Amino acid sequence: MSEQEKHKTDVIIVGAGPVGLFAVFELGLLDIKAHLVDILDRPGGQCTELYPEKPIYDIPGFPIISGQELTDNLMKQIEPFEPTFHLSQMAEKLEKLENGNWQLTTDAGTVLEAPVIVIAAGGGSFMPKKPPLPGIDAYEGTSVFYAVRKKDFFADKELIITGGGDSALDWTIELQPLVKKMTLIHRRDEFRAAPDSVNKMKALVDAGKMDFHVGQITTLNGADGQLSSVSVKGKEGDAFDVPCDMMLAFYGLTMKLGPIANFNLNFENNLIPVDTAKFETQTPGIFAIGDINTYPGKLKLILSGFHEAALMAQAAYTYVNPGETPRFQYTTSSSAIHEKLGVGN
After folding, report:
1. How far apart are CA 43 and CA 15, in angstroms?
2. Could you tell me the CATH superfamily of domain 130-251?
3. Is the sign of the CA dihedral 122, 17, 38, 103 positive or negative?
4. How is residue 4 annotated by DSSP?
5. CATH homologous superfamily of domain 6-126+254-341?
6. pLDDT by residue (tens digit) across 91-141?
7. For residues 126 and 88, is the Cβ–Cβ distance under 8 A?
8. Does 130-251 match 6-126+254-341 at the fold level?
9. DSSP character at residue 62
């Protein structure tokens, strides 16, 4: 990567699932700014990635709400606080600076500095599943990728996208105008993506603006990490090659702790112990909320994570504003809060 992208803020939240998003709201009520880092390409965590249409029945005030609806509501709720998202990036390195702040570096080279770190990573990081193709490691990072960091990176390339879910279809549609040639390969003619996306993709095929093949990639062809083509076995057993410069593979995700396991947070059975007053870890200035933490009586529920986010924000205030104590205010009656939220008279 060229010159590192650097940001300084009040709080860095690792994880943009429901609990991480609600943490933005609780912090915002105290005038605390937040940046969020998430390996997924959209906010919502498991709610949007694994069960966007699955009904949830235990969110207070909502007898039934889908994972996507909950995420949409949370995003609307935090709009007044203008959080900054660093999506499709993994929190890779954490170090303490001489000025007392923390510096977090992502795998995309983004550098964030803040006095407070909040780990809201759920069960861990979503890691891409690799296609079971021999020699794929040699191409990774050069011509085989599992996420889109910058769209322009694929401009004027002969790109193959493989997969049949929302990510595969969304990026096929998004990148098609930029690339030299777009080819989508999926093992069957049925998709796990939104019908509208499927229809848009098929319209591009009908217009001759891209190709679609039903089949499975069997071999990567190239040298020195650079793809020249892939070999495909079609649904009728026929074999053919498809020329390409690059490949984006969307074979689903699996949950792993990832680099945060090396952040010296005293993990116990892949969970981070915290106190129940502030939800702070053994390391001052680092908090853990949601499914990633553990304490006596812990319940892995979204509503529990919301409670943890509220208490965390009160404690984080003292790190962001040394020597000061946060003034507790009710959102129903505080004119100052109403002004922040843009509501009331």
Report:
1. 9
2. FAD/NAD(P)-binding domain (3.50.50.60)
3. negative
4. P
5. FAD/NAD(P)-binding domain (3.50.50.60)
6. 999 999 999 999 999 999 999 999 999 999 887 666 778 898 999 999 998
7. no
8. yes
9. B
